[in-house]
Write a structure and sequence with these properties.
4-stranded mixed sheet, two-stranded antiparallel ribbon, 10 helices, globular
Amino acid sequence: MKPNIKFKNQPKKFWAYVRTISEAVGYTERGTRRIKIPTVSNMKNAFRSANLDPTLIANEEDQPTLIASTLLEYFKFRADTLNDFVEPRLMDAARAKSVYERLHKELSPRCPIPMNKQKGDKRAPAYLTAITNMLIEANAEGLPCDYDPRKLTTLTTNGEPLRTLARRVDGALPGTINPVAIWEIKEYYYTTTFGSRVADGVYETLLDGMELEEAHEHEGIDIMHLLIIDAHYTWWDCGRSYLCRIIDMLHMGYVDEVLFGYEVVERLPDIVKELVKKVRT
């Protein structure tokens, strides 16, 4: 999904409000698996608990300020997006396998099909990565792609390095030198808890986004930054608060699009076609 333009251009202070309130109020409705929408009263109480001025949220009659009105709209948007759009698209291993096998049969790919890191009966193709690779190959019109970069991404001009990102990414088009797009893939079909390794994956993407933001601001370099995630149990049953953080990160501008589960099939072909045009113009 792309960011909602209304919320993408908010000042960084707005996201301080979002995080402060979310942390105090919580992300999920108690007794349900639905994402919570804070009320004006919730937001005022969140500010009081953090020793902040509640009149920045609303007056004594709970009439919201301008920024609080936008916050209410954003929290509703975030909840509706996750509850109604994202959750149905998150796949389990069985569904991902079915999608992978269908695409493999249709596309007869030559791109790499990596295996997961499981053992025994769980040893299988890394379904989300394989689906991503196949769809890129099928829509890239022969353009090169580094499906498994084993070196850092470097941005150059006139033979001089301008920026080298701190981390290796999961893919780059057409390669890691001056790519038009890079992406991270987070698939956790066999994870039984939402541990620190999964959380770290979110913050790694945030780091990449901050580096790309700095390169854009100071060097005028634009690189599409994608995050592709899946596993219904891991992200929805265990990690809904991190899904909220991902939606926040998307609208803060640290990632250009997030593809949730089956959305990679719905959206990635068009993204790749757009990137091909960019490379060839």
